[in-house]
Amino acid sequence: SRDTDKTKTLLNNFKRILSLIFVFFLIHLKDKIQDFANFFNKVIDCHDGFLSILFCVSSDLREIVFIIQSQSNTFHVRQAERQKADLLKQAHSLVEEPPVVLLLHTLSHNEGDWSILPLLPHLSQSFGKNSSWIVFLEEETDVKMNTLAGVLATFDRNKEWFLGKHLHDEDSTIIHHYAFAENPSIFKYPDFSAGWALSIPLVVRLGNKVKQEPLKSDFTIDLKHEVALYIWDNGKGPNLTAVPELCTEPKDSPQALLCATTLSNHPTQCGKPVNKDDIFVAVKTCKKFHTERVPVIKKTWEKEALYLEYYSDYADPSIPTINLGVPNTERGHCGKTFAILQRFLSSAVPDTKWLVIVDDDTLINLPRLRALLGCYDPSEPVCLGERYGYGLSQGGYSYITGGGGMVFSREAVLQLLDSGCKCYSNDAPDDMVLGMCLNALNLPVTHSPLFHQARPEDYSKDFLAHQVPISFHKHWNIDPVAVFNKWLKEDFRSNASDGLNKRTKTEL
Hints:
The chain is of the alpha/beta class. The protein contains 15 helices and 24 strands.
């Protein structure tokens, strides 16, 4: 029976590959065969045979709802609108009636929409009767619409499907709450960068479930893993089905020929990186880590900072560190962080456009950060980092998780402090308190997957393979200098040059 199953799988894969090749060639003859296709489209079943894929592309496109996982920051809105325009342009060349293309951040005023699950009832109600697929795309995901429609046509739209590119954990990890500790690799979750899709029957069932049973998780940490867990539902729901045509290959790569989705070649390049003197770096430390963690920073990334200060509970002139008058706490550090925000706006430090707050066990590549910040307008209240969520299904808030690094424009710091936002205790969680304040001010938290709250080994290798990461966090059970040299040291993958090594650091 195992041999029979393997044979069936091979035959099915072979059939799909031949189908896609067939579609590829016929699409280039589309104008000549359109009349012929329109005639036979009336009599051919959309889920049976090679020819059916070609003839069903038009109808399938009209039954696909594309949702771009957009953000409300000006740069990201521009990226998403450009992607939407490209999708509609492709659709107009294939069909008279284009598919629905939506921007996630515009669907409602609910802060938690980016976590997808609270949106399922709305998607079920809006598209449950006249659509077949919901396809989610990140802003950097490029789509070959005709190929994608052909791929989706090979799946029975009347069944529950959860489609994507497989990721898995090799070891149990804190960011997934050590799920499947005995064998983490058995659970597959989607790489959002490749796009992922839900069939409408699955959306309808999940939408009803969300309405009847409130979402239980307080924290949203790694959305792609948590969405997969919710859909799987301890084995009651479908597993993720791997679709090889959903790819994270670069758009112009030879390997992308048969891909329905690819990645933009340089998604974070927005022209000239910001200058070194536009960034002020604040490092949070304490006396017990002066000899353990601070030397790692000095060996790795400190030299790329023109303006940098170490903030501690003890003034050590040999580093040097600055005592802000806030006692050290075992966790939280809210008092220290708000003292840093106030100092950033004072005359005690240079007047810069950007504030970067990191822990003393954060590893960061500042040239790559400078390249990324070239995408953002510092006159806007920008709050950038790895986004987490708390209580999003019950009207909660988003926040930047502190370990990966928190980046604020000067305008964001001004609005935060002018609002009267403050800590309820020195050891309150600084990142979460800031998130509550930003939510009250209706200021968005802008997410970048290039910031990482954990170590490289806590993430799927396939996920990191198509990234040029900006930061990692924690020294636990690793050689932090070796990790920096492998993942964050300047090399051929980084394009943030502009004379980065020509200027020397000024230590305040």
